[in-house]
Design brief:
The chain is of the alpha+beta class and 214 residues long. The chain has helices at residues 28-42, 85-92, 120-129, 132-140, 150-163, and strands spanning 49-55, 61-67, 70-72, 75-81, 95-102, 107-117, 174-188, 196-203, 206-212. Helix 4 crosses helix 5 (150-163).
Length: 214
């Protein structure tokens, strides 16, 4: 029988800052830019980590951590294997949500929208900028597929290093996705769980801003 730990009493108070409508940008991309700049200054190694939540055609959700590689008014971009679980889910249901959580700043941002592939040129350009070991890893791994043991992967990597000693091509099944935002939510932790939450919703006239109850 599992000797489980009692985690019911684990909690923290949020005291770093508040978030008021008066100091909130009217453009969510500007607000995100301000917050990720602060996150990069505070903890650069984790600032671009984001949870990517997708769902398949049957409605089953899946979430995993990926890394943000580009952002702007055209959307938020990451790269992966198109044949992976997330790639298959996005082929079935091209909607997703991103979640950034910056614990030292006691902030999180949720971003929801439609997802599309970036151009092949953009994928190849980014792939060429990656370390060679990462390029080989992308080529060696049939992401999300079963494998009997790790030795098989390591042998494949060794073989590919020899085969592509002069340069590693970007696999056709590897590339970028861009999420085009329809909704943002900015969350700032506050004491006694009375957190500050503001939602930006895209409308025909721009962005509607609403304060949400915690």
């Amino acid at each position: 029988m599992l000797d489980r730990l009692d985690v019911s009493g684990v909690r923290r108070e949020y005291k770093v800052a508040g978030l008021d409508r008066d100091n909130l940008a009217t453009d969510p991309f500007e607000q995100f830019n301000d917050w990720i700049e602060a996150a990069l200054a505070r903890d650069p190694s984790e600032a671009t980590s984001m949870t990517l939540a997708t769902a398949d055609a049957d409605g089953y959700p899946a979430a995993r951590i990926v890394l943000l590689k580009d952002y702007g008014e055209t959307g938020f971009t990451w790269f992966t294997n198109y044949q992976s679980d997330k790639g298959q889910q996005l082929a079935e249901n091209a909607r997703a949500e991103l979640l950034f959580y910056w614990p030292r700043l006691e902030r999180q941002v949720r971003i929801r929208g439609q997802v599309e592939k970036v151009s092949r040129e953009a994928s190849e350009n980014y792939f060429s900028s990656r370390p060679t070991a990462s390029q080989i890893g992308a080529l060696a791994s049939n992401q999300s597929q079963t494998v009997e043991n790790r030795e098989i992967l390591e042998e494949r990597v060794t073989s590919l290093r020899k085969e592509y000693a002069a340069g590693v091509p970007c696999p056709e099944h590897w590339g970028g996705y861009r999420l085009i935002p329809e909704r943002f939510e900015f969350w700032q932790g506050r004491e006694n769980r009375l957190h500050d939450r503001f939602r930006f919703t895209r409308t025909a006239d721009g962005w509607q801003i609403d304060r949400l109850q915690p």
